[in-house]
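Batch job 17 of 40 flagged for manual review because the log was empty.
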Amino acid sequence: MAGAVDLSGLKARAEAKAAQQARPAPAEGEAPAQAGGDVVDVTDQTFATEVIDRSAERLVVVALTASYSEQSAAMSAVLEKLAADDAGRWTFVRADVDAAPGVAQAFGAQQVPMVVAVAGGRAVTAFAGAQPEQAVRQWLDDVLSQVGPALGDAEAGPAEAPSDPRREAAEQLAADGDYDGARAAYEAILNADPGDAEAAAAVKQMAFFARATAADPGAIARADDAPGDVREALAAADEELLTGAPKAAFARLIAAIRMSAGDDRTALRTRLLELFDLFDPADEAVLAARRDLAAALF
């Protein structure tokens, strides 16, 4: 993540959705649904209360997982153990990407598991993929040593900088699903400050979300039925990335590049490079795909 991501927009969106739900409200004084003493499972509707509000008082570690992912289960087990070991220093929250797609989208999750530290209503750091317990322990210790200011600890460091209304407006547009509007808002921020890396990354992310969410569903099946159709290959790669399968998206475009030439190959290569830009350059999936791309081209 390029800097801290403000989650207030997702909170507003979740609260609005919750107000429209026909489900009965929990009885007064009823505790939130939990998977165990040290982990809270959340949905888009409960995210605002269980993560954003809670993070005003204590560090919240959110694990984005999927029921079909063995790495998700392993990472969840590690975090649950560490949460129990730390006995209340932080709260472990788990969000299944299928049950909470809005949460996954807000964090820009491209794969599972993804683990995000949230303090003071903001995502402050994250990592993707399963990690050994020792590495996660070190990550947690580093985060806990730095989140004092985000949780209002006056002795831990300087107060957080004043909020930026322009950025808040852009984040709200994104949380509301207006990706074209959010992109324009981030572009305005970037024009005013060309060195704003967070805004530059957000422009690319919003452009992707706008394109991918506007496409007709079923592109993966259509592309599989027509392997030579460049347009369907591009749409299918977007669909795979949107559903958290970046390796499949990269592999599809590289396979299409091997079969193509001329303008078609240029279009496929350009799109693949655009997708790479949505990730950390050091991401293992990106590094592997870049090697495969070089082999396909040369």
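Reviewer: the log was empty due to a logging misconfiguration, but the result itself is present. The longest strand covers residues 59-65. Unflagging and moving on to job 18.
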